[in-house]
């Protein structure tokens, strides 16, 4: 089994030709230097590091896994060295501000780095995966004293960070969190004592870095029940005097996959911690981390699917079984299985998801850069609209596809896919978790429809859909994509909104169809993305045109099914 | 984690009320005694054995797994004792002829036993899973001398059997098999020396029984290349004089799941073996085993889905998170997650597949009984038509659903589903293999469309579809199901057959749409099955009517998508 090799040429084509990122970024005062050459250089260096240092550790990460003993976690062979090389080379701080020790590069480059990392080694990548969110959270919410101690260490990745939210009885429902924070008496720094148990803490304990910074949701005394009673706290593994905090890793979970990442049960025994931000505003501060995390999870989906596709594509070219219809092989000779329609269909459909996913995800990252740095408030507003609506779609649809698509790629191997030797089954096991964490995919759909589409009467959504149409040349070859966009807009205006807003609508109707709505929007985004790719490569080299055709043949037909299901749900029998 | 408990009341309702099996079976001279009471007694006893003896071993089967050392395989704790109890109680020989040491009961009861066993412990069940096929193969093809030695041992399950087909370079394409069989000089029994390597041999080596009977595809000297050059041989682990044959288990595979079943690499070093049937007719003899095996794999799909659903359903009733829309819970209290539409949708859709799958699978088993024993050749002909067309659909569609549905059930657990503790992720890993073995699901689709529908111009299929319609009362509440059946018939007559038979049709068109066609037929069979269930329970108790509604809401919409995809493939742009 060969390890994953990033194909940065494909990624760059999408970034530079399809999305014309240099022009977009250079319009931002913060990124006037982000030209094609700079981005190319960063991505090639990143690809080299990922392919040479991180990817070869993936198999050991799965087989050996993170090991727990007496409260300590030993990471799989090579993980620590690779991480030390990673942060010392400055990769974690790519998109952090220069004044915090970062390099001040655009978010989109960081996004592309994490896509490659996830493809190469999902387990290893979990460790630095939350860093940037923790950096933003500390930067925007912590006191100056706290920032002085922690911001630079987290920005550079010298210390890793965790997000401690979930408790045994509080998963999707953070309002049920019980961990208590009680003011410490006579503490000069005004700290609190944290007590409680957190579960599913990725990287709660490990040997990659000398310190670990925990960001913890907890409840102050006399705080109201529910989410409004939650505050955010920072509790390190080691304080600056070298003493250890009262945070214990009780065990790590045995999981379906992702064995390279320790999923920890963390117990806080009156651990001294600083508050981050205002009391009762813990979820707000945490959401900064969670939004960044959701885009990253969408990118994991794209990366894992690319990794699975690479393996299946290579195998399909080498393995010969049966004669394909219309074969020109010599009598008695079998054809490469990539010549068989059922296998082609699998491979082309995955490429359709991967390439369109990149267009949508990189654009989202570019919109994040725009949101942060564009001088025009209206442009920032449109960037905010895009990120708010598209992030849950990316997270949900592309992690669903990472799992089902990796499983389809496994199928290309036949029985050989089910044995561990080829490494394809690891991708299926690893990918499964991304449908769950950072908000289950069902919660993403509810977030999209009930919190982002319905409250403003669909205005933001219709705005984004209109932008998508404006973004396409009005030429015959893009009519199908334009119609696809218009079809969803018309459905939203004419069916969805009036019926959901009607006083007769049962209170649960929106929830019944939220999943369908998210999928429909994902497919429309893909239709737009494929038109954009085609606009950048109008001749249509085989590489792109096969996947483009694959999109309309094998992926798009789901759209009508989703509309039909929504219509049936909206129209009581 | 509780182990699986068969729910025989649901299964019996389908067998006895929906399919009216007693009347059907008693029309067969061989099964005049198969009344409701007998079947109930057998199924309840089976359920007891499965729930008490086999199910509790499932977790250990996964965690400890089969262990390989120096050519020997040690099965997981308890497996041998359970197997000894199983065969001594007569379960393997349930449907074997009484003259061969069996109990002469209907195939449908054996089918239901295997569904329960697969649900309870897929890995353990692999061991006896091939027995009945081996029994039929030896019974119908072996010489009397060979039968005298092996038939009864295999019928009773005192010895287990294997099917040695696959080789490293010959998976789906058995024509590429290279294992050689050379006549032994001066062998009194006229045996052959087998030499070659077979892979993916389930139960090739183990400690469950005192002997193992291998049925091996190999090539005689000077035989033509391709499938017609293959003959079938029988080679035991031990000969009757107690000496060991030259068959070696070289290693067992590390797999994604199914750890309770050793998947062996078997090396034959001039191993003395008897021919079974005529030279060059090996595939014919083997197909007896493979058809039985395909129905069993479909039943595995149904069983695994039932096991996953049971776990998810229990969890969804107990776990409380968030308030459901329209909740009547007290302020601040969370609702059981089964009250959330996204979770209900998952649970109802799986029940729609499980219950309809049982109707289709049990009917298929009843048709096998009819095919074997009905005095009327016309009725046997219609039974043969059904089995031939429906077996690949069951194998493919219900194993696809076992995997995607078990994954959906995992989603109900949120993060708890991804950790091993609850046992749900094991079902996902175990279920994945069923999409591959006994002919990949893509090969099932090709078998259905290219070998069974097209060669007779669709006659058999249209016959089966007409029978389905005739089988439903012509009443308003069954119009939708009747229309569904007619829609596929009309599409077959008006679109599919004319276009595929046209001289202009590209040679690969049928292969491009084979998967869609199989899915469309699966959905039509489900529409029929749900109408049949409704006919048996016209009041529609909540238990059945919820899943029936779930079928039309969440499962059926795929049908139009499949028709649209096929139409697009048939109509060049």
Automatic annotation (TrEMBL), chains A, B:
Domain Acyl-CoA oxidase/dehydrogenase middle residues, every copy: 163-270
Keywords for this protein: FAD, Flavoprotein
Domain Acyl-CoA dehydrogenase/oxidase C-terminal, first and last residues per copy: 280-446
Keyword Nucleotide-binding part of the UniProt annotation: no
Signal peptide start-end: none
Domain of life: Bacteria
InterPro entries (alphabetical): Acyl-CoA_Oxase/DH_mid-dom (IPR006091), Acyl-CoA_Oxase/DH_mid-dom_sf (IPR046373), AcylCo_DH-like_C (IPR036250), AcylCo_DH/oxidase_C (IPR009075), AcylCoA_DH/ox_N (IPR013786), AcylCoA_DH/ox_N_sf (IPR037069), AcylCoA_DH/oxidase_NM_dom_sf (IPR009100), Diverse_Acyl-CoA_DH (IPR052166)
Pfam families referenced in this protein's UniProt entry, alphabetically: Acyl-CoA_dh_1, Acyl-CoA_dh_M, Acyl-CoA_dh_N
Coiled-coil boundaries: none
Obligatory cofactor(s): FAD
Domain Acyl-CoA dehydrogenase/oxidase N-terminal, chain residue ranges per copy: 40-158
Family that this chain belongs to: Belongs to the acyl-CoA dehydrogenase family.
Entry protein name: Alkylation response protein AidB-like acyl-CoA dehydrogenase
Organism lineage string: Bacteria, Pseudomonadati, Pseudomonadota, Betaproteobacteria, Burkholderiales
